[in-house]
Amino acid sequence: MQLHRFLNKILFFALLATSAPAAAQIIPRVNLYSSFTDNLFQNYNRQSAWINHAFIDLDYVPNAALNIYYSGSANIFSDYEDLFSHIHRTGVSYMRLGEENDRSTFYAAAELALRLNRPLYDYRDFVQAETYANFKAYLKPTLLSRCSYSLRYQEYLNAGDYSFLEQIVLAQLSHFLPSRTTLQMQAELGLKTYARAAASDTAAIPVRTGSDRNLMQLKTRLKIAQSLGDNTGLQLEYRKRSNLIGQSRFRAEQFYNPNDDLFDDGYSYEGHELRSTLKHLAPWGLVVELSGFVEHRDYTGRPALDLEGFLVAEAVTRTDERKTLALTVERTFYLQESRINEIRLQLEWLYRDIESNDVYYQTDSQIYATGVQIDF
Q1: What secondary structure does DSSP assign to 42-92, as a single string?
Q2: pTM of the shown model
Q3: Helix, strand or coil for residue 310?
């Protein structure tokens, strides 16, 4: 019933937006996804669940350069009502194109966000403010450059020790060859600063004392994309993640509960990853994508534990080897003389195998998902 009411609200606001005067230029989009996983928490317990995700995006476009938007989403879990959460985002973006012979693009945005959860998981609640700027320019006809900067502050309402400020600087070069090959190199430097010093006596979320307030990470990426014909393309990608200073905070061992392992992000580990993606435009307008990933993760300062929560051995930190295989099939239907411009249907299957020296995470999982996107 909860999902039914939420979906009715989404469709109501979407139809309301399309019935607004044409001059308002309100553009709605609705996404509805349903998935089943045989291992919701990706641990040895293997608890299955259905997950329903609903999303609405409303864009107000006063002119070609400016966009004011709102997006709202909700996640609903079968048999795990306490995991219900909803996120609301509102922001403004600006885009400026270069002169006719320039082909450069400048894009900037600012956004406010709020996430709310059920009381059992209210330490996930946060407010967030983010600003972003991106510039793309051709250095020559076959060489495209891109650079960007983002600044984000995230305040956890009930777990202040994890509130942080993050800054990211990115630089990218793309080189286009006559053989329809694209070479892309990218470097991204991130700095995460915890807003407060760690307090070992925090009641809601105890943390390890001594965790650094500043964390810096360098991510590099090399990608090769090759056209294999008019309807098929292949991508090979290598990624490396290196922690330069600091380490993420996590719960002290005496309070550690893997089910509440909620504050891990990219700064909590380093490692490397190899990806391969094959994309094919099949008959009947179907787009088929097959992807494979092999990833190695070293969790900096994170002890490997046994199933009772005790250290596996002194000075042994968690290490994961992850293998993932994903298959996606989608088709887009373009409608005419209708309030709906297009409908995109999607089916997805994902398999992940995790080899870890932390026995709790030694597992595998599968996800089956279906989704629909409606553009008005």
Answers
A1: SSTT---EEEEEEEEEEEEEEETTEEEEEEEEEEEETT-GGG-EEEEEEEE
A2: 0.88
A3: coil
